[in-house]
Amino acid sequence: xxxxxxxxxxxxxxxxxxxxxCYQNAVFTIMQPLVEIKKNGTMALFELTPxxxxxxxxxxxxxxxxxxxxxVIILIGILLMLGTIQISQLFLxxxxxxxGMFMVFTFGIxxxxxxxxxxxxGAWGGFIIVFIYIFSGHGGMLPNVKGFMKTVSQFNPFTYLxxxxxxxVFKDITIAFPLYVNMLIVIGAGLIFIIVSVKTFxxxxxx
Length: 207
Description:
It contains 7 helices and no strands. It has helices at 2-39, 53-82, 90-112, 118-134, 148-154, 157-169, 179-200. Helix 1 runs antiparallel to helix 2.
C-alpha cells in the first residue's frame, strides 16, 4: 500500500512538473524571445527574405518541441526505473505529450503577437502561467470545486490536456470525458491558436 502511494505521488509530481515546464517554455523561451527580437528589429530582417510567417512559426514549434522532448525522454527514463510508468503506456503518452506541446507552444506564439514590451510580456507571462496552472485541475482540484472556478476550468483547454495525461498515467482515474474527447479539444485549441497566430503575427512592431 505504501509503495503504491509513493508511485502515485511520484507520477503526480512528474505530471505537475511536465505541465509547469511546458508552460514556462511557452512563455519564457517562445513568447518573450519573439517579443525581444521583434522589438530590437532582428525579426524585421526576415521580411526581406522569402521566409513566410507560417514557415517561421512552424520552425519555432519544431525546435521547441525537439528540445522539450529530450527532457521528457530523460524524465520518462527515470520514471521507468522507478516503476511509476510502464512501457505499454509510452506510445500513448508520447502522442498525448506531442499534441499537448503543440497546443501549449502555439499558445506561446499567439501571446507574443499581443505584446511590444519584453518586460510587460514577462510580467503577464508569469501571471498567465499561474492562472493556467491553477485553473487546469492540477492535484485533483477540478472535481472538487464549484461555481466560478469550475466554470473557468471547464472553458480552459489546458484542463483537458491535464486530464488526458492523467488518463494515460493513472489507469483507474475517473474523468468526465473519454481520452479521445479530451484530445480532440486539445488538438482543436492548438489549431485555433496557430491559425490566429499566423493571422496576427507581425515581423516588426506597429508604431
